Amino acid sequence: MAIIGNWINGDMLEELAKEEERGDIGILVMTWDQTLETAHHEGFFSLRLTRLFRSTAMRFSKTTGAAFKWLVLDDGLLMVIRMARSEWAAERDEALTRLLFELRETAVQVFSAGKRTRKLRGKDRICGGAALIRRQDEGTDGHSAAGDRDVDLLSALLRAWRMAVTSSPCSFEIFECRKQAVRWSRERIGVRYAPIVSMQDGSLFAYEALPFNKATAEVWTPEQFFSVSEWEGELFDNDRYFREQAILAAPSGSTPVKLFVPVPAWIVFEPKLHPGDTLSKMEAAGLRPEQVVLTLVDNGTDHPGTLVAALRHYRMQGFRIALSAVGTDREAIERLIALKPDYARIKGDWIPKETRDPVGESLLQAVTSLARKEKIVLFADGLQRKEQIRPLISAGVGYGLGPWIGDSAEKPPPLDPVVTDRIRQEIRRKFRGTSGSLAELVEPVHTFSSRTPVSEIARQFETHRESHVFVIVENGQPVGLVMREKLHRMLASQFGLPLYGNRPVAKIMETQPLVADQKTPIDQLSQAAMMREPDKLYDSVIVTDAGKVKGIVSIRALLEWVTNVRMADAQWANPLTGLPGNEPIRRELSRRLDEGRPFSVIYADLDHFKGYNDRYGFHRGDDVIRFTGETLQSVVKDYCPDNSFVGHIGGDDFIVIMDSGNPVKISEDILVLFEKGISSFIDGTHGPVADRSGMLLENTGVSISLALLLCQNTDGWTPDTLAERAALLKKKAKSRSGNSLEWDMLDYQEDQAERQA
């Protein structure tokens, strides 16, 4: 019986069936133009081509252990290869693709030989295709029935032949023996969306699409999903199906959030992958390339060049790229620096395990500083508790996700208000007391509707040459931003003006600009601005009042203000310890008193420091001063790192201002740490230290006296009255020998009554 021309007969079909029962088989089909053969002498084709085909097949059999049969006809080649079952589907697929390529090159060499051969007119003259039939595992459903088996064999043969005559050369496709299992595999793939929150203002930043197993009602990790798909030989089809479903159900609107979609990095070597497939699905869903972030998933066994090839492939299409699961090992850090993705997901190992974890916080600060230097935006994965938010905000991590942020759902879930409130609370805590208001920096800005044509926006920029930014609004609320430089660059590209000129500005505007209320501290805003993606670093910030646009703040004005403030603070900093001096101390005390919340103040004074200076010299005395400042900072940082202040009043006098917490315990720890460390500054070559009266002192001679004020009721108090009360406590502490602590609880009414008495 003829299936394709006169290639296949009943005997060949029987051979195929026998091979299928023994193991996996690959069917390779190659076709060529019959007129090519007429250019050769009679017998030349069948003899030389058959020998070369046999040689190529034998090399393949020797390296892979596969058995093969083939049939050569006037216009094509059919080869059947039986292969042992392999758990590495990618290696098997690559071997078959390589064999098809070598067979085609062999045919090209034969047809190109001889003086009378016509010149080949491109690769379409000799084409090939392949299909793989996997034997069904025993112990599940058993072997397929004879009728099903014949259908599978014929379907695979027809598919390989159709690819050979209609597709580009050396196309490759996997065909499963049980088609029903493949259809069920598609039906079990679902999508769940997990929210990603901004650590800058507590708003919803993006959703991450996660594969979902409908059969077991479980969320797959991307690594599990792609690994299972590859093992089943369905990686390309499953990945494409998952991307389509994730994009189609993604949220969109006037202010859409970003969508993070995981993709296997090694998919870029798939012959069926064509650039633009994902972009076409996004365009149909109303999404722009910059709104979708592709998270490259590495299977851990790929060549290092795989990630580089995948990153280059998708960036050329306009996508932003994220790197998944950045670990704490050196290799992971080196890979992060080498690849320079737009985003990087850090594992839970980077997040401090305990409330007070100085080592963990230092590691987090280090990787954040490195990412900022390389212009990589970090987001933390696996947030389980609200206590993990504080170190992330302190370190400057941009975004976060995890069970505490929100569970994944079939439809993109709204962000829990509790999460937003908690993040904003931590931000206010971090920037409490910082000076400066956005009202000082706001500049007026022109606003336009999102329906305004792009050509009109460009004309308005020419009319208002002093403007470098326009804000797009709906009902007075900001929905987008257009920077003049970016718009001109877009319109100056080839076909830029014809393509975008008549479209509404909503199609090209920045849909996620940085928006801040006018009451936002400038320090907070400057950090948020510097945590943005590299291409947004210099975009202006929209300032609002009660949700309505008030104006914009340029990055230049923001940086100038921060620089001036830092220079002013540096003028008041103590040159020996680097700690804030008298003016910053007074501002901090005044702020705390104005807020009216309870706080604590520790005044620290060294005893017998003059005698130490006289005996050891000023250089050693400077070392003791620096040690004292470091001791105070170290203890305070362990207990209240986010809302504390350590200042150097001058000489050997220091001050600590902090939230109430447990100030007595903090003071006691300061005494213990000071006593442990001061002995290293004493040696036997200089003799004992004397006090101001000349009396020789025992032991080290240098001690510290602490005066602790618990300010529970601050009504009526001023920085000066606090200093007076602290001086009385210090006098009591210094009257005792050695390290000492005196503390008192302030109440203005009781103090006034005592003074009047």
TrEMBL record:
**Superkingdom, natural source:** Bacteria
Name all GGDEF domain ranges: 597-746
Residue ranges of the EAL domain?
171-426
- PANTHER family per UniProt: CYCLIC DI-GMP PHOSPHODIESTERASE PDEF (PTHR33121), SIGNALING PROTEIN (PTHR33121:SF76)
Q: Name one Pfam family in it.
A: GGDEF
What SUPFAM superfamilies does UniProt report for this protein, alphabetically? Answer: CBS-domain pair, EAL domain-like, Nucleotide cyclase
Residues forming the CBS domain are 441-499
Q: What is this protein called?
A: EAL domain-containing protein
Keyword terms: CBS domain
Task: Name one molecular function that GO assigns to this entry.
Answer: cyclic-guanylate-specific phosphodiesterase activity
